[in-house]
Amino acid sequence: MIDSNLLSLTGFKLSIHNSSDFKHTQYFAVSASFPSVSLPEVTTGYRNQMGYVPGDKLNYDPLTIRIAIDERLESYREIFGWLRTNVSATELKIHDITLHFLTNHNNISRSIRFANAFPTNMGGLEFNVQGTESEYAFVDVTFRYDYFEFLT
User: Residue 92 and which of 1, 51, 66, 144 are 20 to 30 A apart at CA?
Assistant: First the structure.
């Protein structure tokens, strides 16, 4: 008998190693799109028949995090600064990003570390004075990384 609950899609916590530089980004992370992983096949031929075997390298899709933007734009500025630093730095500024999945009691049940991550894209903000209700700003940030692993 398996003693386990189903994974809740509403319980997660983001941490970026060297968290003092990204405290607003971590706090205002409201959603994460867990990336897919694929193992491309290699085509092999034998006596006019096509066959397939597993490839030798996993392909990891990018990690996308949606971040709420505070009214002082601190969360936006943290990611923008990271992007801007990587444009002119002689050494790429990378950090490990960890997604912690929470139980229904808000305890960490499992953590997944994305190694050597850096942002590659940050969505824009659209302001509109014609809205009738208060709306809040969110941006999607896309990260590339080398691999991810489950932590114990």
Answer: 66
Q: How many residues are there in the chain?
A: 152
111-142 burial: b if 16+ Cβ within 10 Å, else e? bbbbeebbbeebeeeeeeeeeeeeeeeebebb
Collapsing DSSP to helix, strand or coil, 76 comes out as: helix
Measured from the Cβ of residue 24, the count of other Cβ atoms closer than 10 Å reads 20
Which SS3 state, helix, strand or coil, does residue 29 take?
A: strand
User: What is the rounded distance in angstroms from the CA atom of residue 120 to the CA atom of residue 117?
Assistant: 9
Of 118, 50, 62, the residue nearest 86 (C-alpha): 118
Q: What is the pTM of this model?
A: 0.88
